[in-house]
Specification:
Helices cover 66% and strands 0% of the residues. It has 18 helices and no strands.
Length: 317
């Protein structure tokens, strides 16, 4: 009897792989329904860590962080199958309640207990980002990438932190790697806008979130959406031309003398295989622009070579 926990940074609902005599999957319920379901289990077994963790997850989804704190704290009182993920809810709830010092302490404690849990390190990095503790956020993100090199949000967050810490041009290599992997069209288009404005040196168009807006951040997507206020977003997106952006990306890849250690081998191999042009267009695929669609169709042979390259060179495959 084990729970297969799908626990991304958005703290998605849990799903069961197997549990004796369970006829109703909790992940099909509303948060309120799930709370009722798990509390019915507690009536039969007051020490069920499974139920305490389920209730904590549901309250977190309801943004009831005090209740999430209460039930996740009960889950982590002793070692169990749900402890690592309960720590994420516990520390994240402290963060959402503005108790940042306590949140950092709990994250750091949990990471020592579960050093291989990349979600713990990622959420810790996001919390550090919120409070502009970028010197701690960056090594935490690098740890995430080492543990789970194909985890898309980590690469985006890496790029955001590098940009905000010192306007490090290598932030683009992290953003591009995320775009290579990302299937979320809405989020990726925000990242493409960032890449476009950065490579065009229009830094004034990128607005770093501060104060209350920064503290309210709960996901990576919030950061990317915050970079472009409504009053400039429409103009920026209407003027994005894939052929121009692809050219800027290709030039960046071929003239960048130093990459981040996490991407060095990948990008050097990309250039050795002369695939920078196809890469530059592929990362823009979610724009779904007519020019872009036609270009990719006309270069289907190049895409096949690129697919073969990825099979051999993507880390973690």
């Amino acid at each position: 009897m084990r729970l297969n926990i799908v626990f991304l940074i958005t703290i998605q609902f849990i799903s069961l792989s197997s549990f004796s005599k369970v006829t109703l999957q909790p992940d099909t319920l509303s948060p309120d329904g799930a709370i009722k379901y798990y509390k019915s289990i507690l009536k039969k077994n007051k020490d069920s860590e499974f139920a305490y963790f389920g209730i904590a997850s549901a309250y977190f989804m309801k943004n009831d962080y005090l209740s999430a704190l209460k039930y996740s704290k009960h889950t982590i009182r002793k070692p169990n199958d749900f402890e690592a993920d309960a720590y994420i809810i516990y520390a994240s709830s402290l963060d959402r309640l503005g108790r940042s010092k306590e949140a950092f302490k709990e994250f750091e404690k949990a990471i020592k207990l579960y050093p291989e849990n990349y979600q713990l390190s990622y959420q810790y990095a996001l919390s550090c980002y919120k409070y502009r503790i970028l010197d701690k956020a960056l090594p935490a993100i690098e740890r995430v990438i080492q543990l789970q090199p194909l985890f898309v949000p980590a690469h985006y967050l890496f790029g955001c932190c590098l940009f905000e810490k010192s306007n490090d041009k290598r932030c683009i290599s992290a953003m591009l790697f995320a775009l290579l992997l990302d299937k979320d069209s809405a989020r990726s288009q925000q990242a493409i806008a960032f890449v476009s404005q950065y490579l065009n040196q229009r830094f004034d168009n990128i607005v770093i979130p501060y104060f209350d807006k920064r503290i309210a951040i709960t996901t990576l997507d919030h950061i990317l959406y915050s970079y472009f206020p409504k009053n400039v977003k429409g103009e920026i997106f209407s003027k994005m031309q894939p052929e121009t952006i692809a050219g800027l990306i290709k030039n960046y890849l071929e003239t960048q003398k130093q990459y981040l250690p996490a991407y060095d081998a990948f990008y050097k191999s990309l250039m050795n295989e002369h695939l920078t042009e196809i890469y530059s267009h592929y990362v823009l695929r979610t724009l779904n622009d007519s020019y872009q669609v036609k270009w990719l169709k006309a270069n289907s042979d190049g895409l096949k070579l690129f697919a073969s390259f990825l099979e051999k060179n993507l880390p973690g495959k």
